[in-house]
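Why predict the complex rather than its parts? Because the way molecules touch one another can change local conformation, and only a joint prediction can capture that. The input here totals 225 residues.
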Amino acid sequence: SQQGEEDPQALSIQEGENATMNCSYKTSINNLQWYRQNSGRGLVHLILIRSNEREKHSGRLRVTLDTSKKSSSLLITASRAADTASYFCATANLNNDMRFGAGTRLTVKP
Amino acid sequence: DAGVIQSPRHEVTEMGQEVTLRCKPISGHDYLFWYRQTMMRGLELLIYFNNNVPIDDSGMPEDRFSAKMPNASFSTLKIQPSEPRDSAVYFCASRAGGAYNSPLHFGNGTRLTVT
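Output of the joint prediction:
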């Protein structure tokens, strides 16, 4: 079964704009991770935020985590056409498994 | 490192046939996961192993599905007999260590079509 729910399901923006994706989950977690998937490929890890962290940055990526609301957000700043992909949140649960949300399909128009 | 290697990349088979998907995890990784991806259900966790031992197979849809990990460098997911509703992309992923600090590394998947 899936753990998280992302919204929006799809997002279309212009190059240079910021993209924000949200994720909600249901159970207690060790950490929350964001992954990217290009068409026809496997998922690639982007960033990990632990349950005791509230915000994390990596390059143009900013992730927040609110464990009281069981939610996270991924912000991609100054988007590029090459950022076009599907983005998934995944929760690393206390029993060591990992479950993914349904994903957000991001399209960045040049 | 070559990353997680899955074979075949594409598999087309007829209903009722046996299908075997293969996965070679990254050397030294002690966790291995099998996922199934469809438009309708997204990414579903089927089963995962730790040190070659199955830990949780509650996501395996039916007895037609079975997975093995005979050694640290190889795993198989078998469907027997296959049905059209098994059509999906199947991903294998591996990880070094427990969930606290480790990301998953995915293969490029096997696209299975059952006609």
